[in-house]
Amino acid sequence: LTSDVALALFDLHGVQISAGSACQSGAAKNSEILLHLHKGNSAKNGLRLSFGFHFHEEDLNNLIKKLGPIFSKIRSS
To answer: Whose CA is closest to 3, among 46, 35, 40?
Structure first.
């Protein structure tokens, strides 16, 4: 699953994610973290979820409810 496809899939379910690192905004580079974890080919398709100070338990519960159908769709692909 490429990050482009994953971004669209998450967006369809109302989950805003990003590809790449927060400090490389707008740049399509491999994830340094995934490269250091020896994830090679997966490093170019990494995804990032960011949470702010106003992210509460209710927000987390809503996110978890949305992730189930997303991951089910990914597994069936």
So the answer is: 46
